[in-house]
Amino acid sequence: MFEPLSREYLAAPEALEEKVLENWQADDLFAATLQARKEADAFVFYEGPPTANGRPGIHHVLARTLKDSVCRYWTMQGRRVLRKAGWDTHGLPVELEVEKQLGISGKPDIEKHGIGPFNEACRNSVFTYKKEWEELSQRIGYQLDYENPYVTFDKNYVESVWFLLSRFAANDLLYRGHKVLPWCGRCGTGLSSHEVSQGYKDIDDPSVWVSFPLQNASGILADAALVAWTTTPWTLPSNMGACVHPNLEYAVISADNRHFVLLESKADSVFGEGTWEKLGTVQGAELTGLSYEPLFAFDGGEVVHEGTKRHVVSADTFVSDEDGTGIVHLAPYGADDFRIAQAEDITALLAVGNEGRFLCDVADVKAGTFFRDANKPLAQDLKDRGRLIKRSQCNHSYPHCWRCDTPLLYFPSPAWFLKTTAYKDAMVEENQRIRWAPSEIGEGRFGEWLENNIDWALSRDRYWGSPLPVWMCNADENHWDCLGSFEELADRVGGLPTDFDPHRPVVDTLHYPCTASDCTGTMHRVPQVIDCWFDSGAMPLAQYHWPFENQELVAEQFPADFIAEGLDQTRGWFYTLHAISVFLTRVDKKLWAENPDLPRLTPGSAYKSVLVNGLLLDTDGQKMSKRLGNIVNPAEAIGQHGADAIRWGLLAGGAAHLSRRYDDRALAEVRRRVFGTLTASYDFFALYARTEGWEPSADTISDRPPLDRWILSRTQATAEECAQAWEDLEPSHALRALEGLIVDEISNWYIRRSRRRFWAADDPVGQQSAFTTLHEVLSTVAQLIAPVAPFLADALWQRLGHAESVHLTRFPEHSVWRDPALESAMDPILRASSLGRSVRERVQIRVRQPLAKVLVHINAEAKLVASPRDYEATLREELNVKEVEWVEGTPDFLQVRAKANFKTLGRRAGKDMKELAAAIGTLDRETLFTLKGGGTTEVTVGDTTYALTGEDVLMETLSVEGLEAAGDGKVTLGLVTDITPELEREGLAREVLNRIQTQRKESGLEVSDRIRLKVFADAPLRQALQEHGKWIADEVLAPDGLDLPDALPAWAASTTDLPENVHHWDLPGDVGVKILVEKA
RNA sequence: GGGCCAGUAGCUCAGUUGGUUAGAGCGUCCGCCUGAUAAGCGGGAGGUCUGUGGUUCAAAUCCACAUUGGCCCA
């Protein structure tokens, strides 16, 4: 029992941690904690599924540590915390990775390769890094059930996703529409914003200003034409409207004998300075509803939105006054344009199709022309017809396809939407019930996002994803079904293939006759797959194949008490979880009405609290990226510092939501300062427990000294702070409190001031109390650090002699230890110690030199319940004084100062406060004492007289006349610095004692070894040693006493060439001494 | 362009509802202790709390604007 820990741990944290890990795995600790809490209340946690097609980085260690620590805390609070691992397996990143592996690129390549083999490759690639993730997670102590993870491509998972989607459809919240996407006409595919950002290039484009002559306008606008600007003349045939800003003021001008409307500030650049004349102004809002002459007349094209209007003016705030003319030409090739068309019911017609080519002849442009090649002829045509006002070239950066380098167009592509805007209010309301840490994200970032909610574009024109379970009739596109289970599909198609897997392409081969009456069409699945964010958002239900299985379990495990992810998930997982759950539990009333046996899920969001963590930057505050080469390899970091130090360092390094830096130096400091101090404290305890043969016993110690009760109280206070911090989702607060307890209170104060008691054979009761107390304190600390430093906690716990793992214990709660009065009484002692050392420093008297007396005065304001006098012995030893004199009242030799109490006076005094404070500062001693004695006084400032009571004035004591003194306002201390010959001799004796101990240590003696001791000294020292020899001998374990020979040997004159085991020392005051220390 | 966050000592960060002298660690200077010893401790020095304006008797804290950086979304 009580083997040392410090050296072993600090030298190689990794080795110790791996040993601990092996034990956990051998005992299946995670299963054991769950087993022990089988009947306990659940604390529900959802694991946000990582994408398993990339290596885990150090930032994942941060997120996983946060999750793990909170879950461990609640487990220690006795809750049953299931932690099902999960993997996000679908989506574009997987496809791109596989394309690279297969050496193909783009949709045509994939289809040539075959969707079947392609998807098979995707499925296999997903787990390339799974093992690495699992190993890292385990190595950092992230407790998670890896045996039964949820996997989003699993057929059961997909079936749950289908079910959820069918519920949206059943509530008429699934609809077909168009989504404007960056689009490559050659590849025939939409691109994600990430892909687009990889392909910007500078190219030249025409820049044209065209006119829209108003029709049926009156007044100043009669015969005027709007001026619009574009760099994409190819979109002009598809022009469907013009848009202005409702609140901008537009000028009506005359130029070239015609009238135009545009922003006045832009007229010079379009028409040239001095060539135009302002006729008047008009508000944007006044232009709305007017119609104008279309730019082109042609037949054909594709209608993508059937509306009641065309070529009209509308107003919207997206119009800016910076570029162009303040009047925007609307065509379906823009997201804002498309949105306005839908809102204003404007018909949207495409002249350019999804291959990037014209669908019909327009002016001189033939059908089939590539869109950019039409710019010139169209501009020429407009010029010929007088509709082109100005033309120039502009060079700008334009997105290109990263695969084939073709310029992209924005294209309204058919897509399926979830009508989330229909229940936006419910989402906003439920968001207010979520506890966000930090709260600003819930109100701000997430709240804003919900307020500006737009319908969820759900479909993706891709291959590797949950297939959209919509079957559509080939005769009438208005006939479509959204299927909600494999059984339903089997019923329709007359049975499913054996080992049915719902992925493409097999699912695409399943057809059935249209069920609409009088329709002879066939139902085919639509080609799209589902946005993989829907997969992950469905996780609370789909992870348990709900509602097909586990109905009761899901009812218990919904919603989550806690989730935690990075800030980047605000509009990702945090949103999709919320959107799906609010819909299912609040909007879908039919489901619950029609299925009374289905256990009800608590209405609301999918999570009650969420801890958001910020970015992890490198040491210089730079974002970690492969390009910069500043990625921290987690395995290397763990090898260097150990997982616990990294966990601690990452969590302590600032508020969780702030971006913080990964700093090797900070981690090294955690190891040294926190873990080093803790393990050294344990080693101190263990050393003397072994030496003295101490063992823990069940006996209670009835009468512990105040210092022991103090540290117990502080430990319990810290436990309470930690519990509060975990419940507030503020891990760094818990760690700060623990660091203070470990470093300042246990090590630097309690142990430092208690050391002697551990070997004090003359006080067995005190010794027993010291051992028991420190054992209890260290055990409690092991439990308190367990959520964050699980390895060290367990190693420490077990070395302290506890049988089972610390992780099976309950979070410490020893309310009987708590004694706030005792705690506050220590404060003046700590202050007095600090002041005393400060004075000694100033007067240059080292601590080893005993002094006769210290005077201590504690400000009456402190109003202490318990008396600091309980700690008098502690203070005496700390300051090395013979006597502490507690000064009562406020004797004349104390200098006092009055200060205004701003809190009580501020409101009363108002503007006079400043002067009043100054006046109070000058109050004399006598008045002060009157006040403090319960009397009152009056102070006049300006015209107002203020009646003051003792409460309004704070009295500080500053120094002591006639003594070397110091004060901090609350405690004043005066040191009697006269050194009598007697004290001087004791000081010298202490110097000798110190040298002997040093010699002991240098000779490699154990602390309990007995020694033989001989001291060779001259006259002045001899007297000191004769007086204190017995005491010295006792202290240094010299059973034969201190041998002080009268006659000095010949070598005593030299300081070199000394016999073995003899050292020469120079003591203060030019005193030399030679000491022999050898093992007895 | 919109939203959110941050800017405090040379560095990394605390700072509770506005209140008296803005704290800690690292680094630096000086010193000390040691029956925890390849550790440890104390005492100094070091701050226009990003800037400007405002509210207030009183602002690091509340408000506005600006500025720098970060993230998300356009």
- Indicate the radius of gyration in whole angstroms: 41 Å
Helix content: 25-40%
**How far apart, in Å, are the first and last alpha carbons?**
28 Å
Category by helix and strand content: alpha+beta
On the 0-100 scale, what is the average pLDDT? 86
Q: How would the global form be characterised?
A: elongated
What this model shows, in words?
- The protein is an alpha+beta fold and 1080 residues long.
- It contains 36 helices and 41 strands.
- Strands 5, 6, 8, 9, 10, 11 and 16 form a 7-stranded mixed beta sheet that branches.
- The longest helix has 29 residues, at 664-692.
- The chain is elongated and about 125 Å long.
- It binds one RNA strand of 74 nucleotides through helix 16, strand 29, helix 25, helix 27 and helix 30.
In short:
The protein has 36 helices and 41 strands.
List keywords for this structure.
1080 residues; alpha+beta; 4-stranded antiparallel beta sheet; RNA-binding
How are the SSEs ordered, and which strands pair?
Blueprint: H1 6-11, H2 13-27, H3 29-36, H4 58-76, E1 84-87, H5 92-102, H6 107-113, H7 115-125, H8 130-139, E2 145-151, H9 155-170, E3 174-184, E4 189-190, H10 193-197, E5 200-215, E6 224-230, E7 241-244, E8 249-255, E9 258-262, H11 264-271, E10 277-283, H12 284-287, E11 291-292, E12 302-305, E13 312-315, E14 327-330, H13 335-344, E15 348-350, H14 375-384, E16 388-399, E17 409-418, H15 424-431, E18 435-437, H16 439-451, E19 456-457, E20 459-460, E21 470-473, E22 480-482, H17 486-493, E23 512-513, E24 522-525, E25 529-530, H18 532-537, H19 539-542, H20 551-556, E26 563-566, H21 573-587, H22 589-594, E27 609-613, E28 616-617, H23 634-641, H24 643-652, E29 660-661, H25 664-692, H26 706-727, H27 731-754, H28 764-785, H29 790-799, H30 820-843, E30 851-858, H31 872-879, E31 881-887, E32 894-900, H32 902-909, H33 913-921, H34 925-932, E33 937-941, E34 944-948, E35 953-960, E36 964-967, E37 971-976, H35 981-1002, E38 1011-1017, H36 1019-1035, E39 1042-1043, E40 1062-1067, E41 1071-1079
Parallel strand pairs: 1-2, 6-9, 7-13, 18-27, 26-27, 28-29, 30-31, 38-39
Antiparallel strand pairs: 3-4, 3-17, 5-6, 5-11, 5-16, 7-14, 8-9, 8-10, 12-15, 17-19, 20-25, 21-22, 21-24, 23-24, 30-37, 32-35, 33-34, 36-37, 38-41, 40-41
Helix pairs in contact: 2-29, 4-24, 5-7, 6-7, 15-16, 15-21, 23-24, 24-25, 25-27, 25-28, 26-27, 26-28, 26-30, 27-28, 28-29, 30-31, 35-36
The chain binds one RNA strand of 74 nucleotides through helix 16, strand 29, helix 25, helix 27 and helix 30.
